[in-house]
Design brief:
- This protein is mostly helical.
- It has 5 helices and no strands.
- Helix content is 73%, strand content 0%.
- The longest helix has 28 residues.
């Protein structure tokens, strides 16, 4: 880990953080399957929908990060991703991102 660039370290932290949220949502689903969550609560708060939403949302964040979504230069999100995670991009691409 010591020789990784800061952008790679930030992406790794993001992957782990997203993974923790996805795992926690999956645990809630498993707890329901084991009948450890009352059906009143499960249905009343529509927990299956929200747990699936959490899993898909954080999976999407990881997928966009891994797929270098930040290369969408004309969007404000691309510029944010470029500043946070992309210190290790090819120099030519880094110049293009900065001038976009």
């Amino acid at each position: 880990d010591g020789d990784l660039l800061p952008g790679k370290k930030a992406r790794n932290r993001l992957y782990y953080t997203c993974g923790i949220f996805m795992f926690c949502a999956l645990i809630v689903i498993v707890l329901n399957s084991a009948k450890l969550i009352s059906q009143e609560v499960w249905i009343g708060y529509n927990l299956m929908f929200w747990m699936e939403w959490v899993i898909l949302f954080f999976f999407g964040i990881c997928w966009m990060t891994k797929g270098r979504f930040d290369y969408v230069r004309d969007s404000w999100t691309g510029k944010i991703f470029a500043n946070w995670f992309m210190d290790d991009v090819h120099p030519d691409m880094a110049d293009k991102l900065k001038t976009a």
